[in-house]
Design goal:
Blueprint (H helix, E strand, L loop, with lengths): L1 E8 L12 H8 L4 E8 L3 H8 L4 E4 L6 H5 L6 E4 L9 H6 L4 E2 L6 H16 L2 H9 L6 H5 L9 E5 L3 H11 L4 E5 L5 H6 L3 E2 L2 H7 L2 E4 L13 H5 L6 E4 L8 H10 L4 E4 L19 E3 L10 H17 L33
Parallel strand pairs: 1-2, 1-3, 3-4, 4-5, 6-7, 6-9, 7-8, 9-10, 10-11, 11-12
Helix pairs in contact: 1-13, 5-8
Keywords: Oxidoreductase
Protein name: C-terminal binding protein
Pfam families: 2-Hacid_dh_C
């Protein structure tokens, strides 16, 4: 029986208490011709390289999988992530090395879309301010404050990037009577029209939107996609939402926009640096609602993502192509066969 060794940094990220690899191993233990094992390695670069240099696969978590690590992987067939974002792996280096990188792009779409709508409604209706007024005995101030705000129905929501989460947000937002526009040069306009969304330029989106919701991925070309000049171009009454990635926004520009009144409010699940420094001005702003990069979290989080990682690793262990490869160009240089649906021991709730 062939052996398949998966090396992962010791410890875990985004996990509930207890940890362990039972969920990942469900699909791997179901293999009849492969004996798979997950082995924890050191979290320092040199130590991890020494442990992983002959590994069949890397389960990426906890530490960045850098170009230095990747160039020392002599036998690696896949680098698997239990997250949507792949910014912790040097994908370019992996592609040059002919190593597929997998993520879980479709596992937590509904949770993140729910969270985006939560921030939209909470900022628009000034939920934190209203709560504070009640607790401080300022009951009579609540209604007058909201009488300054228009009704939600008929407002315009602008989506930057129109991927899975933005489309799930669209389905929810339509129920609140929002007009929806989107900017994404990589998505066919017909896809947007079919969902009742109007494609626009970024300039039009910023000037027309009452809500601007950022969904761009953490890619080098998206770093600081929104800067001070972009916030200046928005309505002074506009609300900015980000449940995507913090580095897509120049946070200093966002802070200035909130301080100067270029925009009215922000709802942020992500920040440029996480966790934020204690002296980050955003932490003291009354016109910001924050959450701790938790949009994807729910009771199914660990189970679903770990099973998906195990399924990807099991496919590669059989010499098959993974389901969610973020660098498909490596297909030309790898010996893996294209993926075909097979039963590999997934649990009933995966």
């Amino acid at each position: 029986m062939a052996k398949f060794t998966i090396v992962t940094p010791k410890g875990a990220s985004f996990t509930t208490a207890g940890g362990g690899y039972d969920y990942e191993m469900e699909a791997l233990k179901a293999l009849t011709d492969v004996q798979a094992e997950i082995v924890e390695g050191p979290t320092d670069t040199a130590g991890f390289i020494a442990m992983a240099k002959d590994a069949d696969a890397i389960y990426a978590k906890g530490i960045p999988i850098t170009a230095e690590i990747i160039k020392n992987l002599g036998n690696c067939k896949v680098i698997s992530l239990g997250s949507v974002g792949v910014d912790s792996v040097d994908v370019k280096a992996a592609t040059e090395a002919g190593i597929p990188v997998t993520n879980i792009p479709d596992t937590f779409i509904e949770e993140v879309a729910d969270h985006a709508l939560t921030l939209l409604l909470s900022t628009f209706r000034r939920v934190i301010e209203q709560d504070k007024m009640v607790r401080e005995g300022r009951w009579s101030e609540g209604r007058p404050a909201l009488l300054q705000i228009p009704r939600l129905w008929g407002q315009t929501l602008g989506l930057i990037s129109f991927g899975r989460v933005a489309r799930a947000v669209t389905r929810r937002a339509k129920g609140f009577g929002l007009n929806i526009i989107a900017y994404d040069p990589f998505v066919e306009e017909s896809v947007m029209y079919e969902m009742g969304v109007t494609p626009v330029t970024l300039e039009d989106l910023l000037s027309r939107s009452d809500f601007v919701s950022m969904h761009a991925p953490a890619r080098p070309e998206c770093t600081h996609m929104l800067r001070a000049e972009h916030f200046k171009a928005m309505k002074r009454s506009a609300i900015f939402l980000n449940t995507g990635r913090g580095p897509t926004v120049d946070e200093s520009g966002l802070i200035e926009a909130l301080q100067q009144g270029w925009i009215a409010y922000a709802g942020l699940d992500v920040l440029e640096v996480e966790p934020p420094s204690h002296n980050n001005p955003i932490l003291k702003m009354d016109n910001v609602i924050l959450s701790a990069h938790t949009a994807s979290a729910s009771a199914r989080f660990d189970e679903a993502r770990k099973r998906r990682v195990g399924a990807e690793l099991a496919l590669v262990a059989q010499g098959r192509w993974p389901m969610s490869c973020v660098n498909p160009a490596v297909l030309q240089s790898t010996k893996l066969r294209r993926w075909q649906p097979v039963a590999i021991g997934r649990g009933p709730n995966s």
